[in-house]
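User: Can you recover a sequence for this backbone? Please restate the input before giving your answer.

Assistant: Of course. Working from this structure:
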């Protein structure tokens, strides 16, 4: 037997629907990206998502918060995609920020390390012979 459903003596007004959840990567203040990116139309560095960025200077007290965070993150090589995700900035704003930092010699950009697509045959044979001896 199922218990009866409880009913309120004084029904409450229905609550308004909750606001939609914010989309990932979208900030409440869209003008903030303009402050980070600066004017549009300037020359931008040729950066890919996989370009590795390495800091070549320490952050100064007068630098912008984004530049300080970027310099602290780039003590080891990180790709532009990783930096964009860590700083929660879109790729376009990240390229503008990195272009300014590249011209100021605060960071250096380099192509990603590409490994050989096919392993060396002698190395594979050595591994195979070592496994056969086990």
């Amino acid at each position: 037997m199922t218990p009866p459903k409880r009913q309120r003596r004084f029904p409450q007004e229905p609550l308004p629907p909750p606001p939609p959840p914010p989309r990932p990567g979208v900030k409440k203040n869209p003008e903030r990206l303009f402050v980070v990116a600066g004017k549009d139309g300037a020359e931008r560095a040729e950066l890919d998502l996989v370009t590795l960025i390495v800091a070549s200077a320490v952050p100064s007290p007068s630098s912008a918060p984004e530049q300080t965070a970027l310099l602290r993150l780039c003590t080891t090589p990180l790709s532009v995609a990783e930096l964009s995700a860590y700083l929660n900035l879109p790729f376009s704003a990240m390229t503008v920020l990195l272009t300014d930092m590249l011209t100021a010699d605060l960071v250096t950009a380099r192509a990603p390390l590409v490994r050989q697509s096919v392993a060396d045959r002698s190395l594979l044979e050595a591994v195979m012979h070592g496994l056969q001896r086990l």
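That completes the design. The two ends are 68 Å apart (CA to CA).
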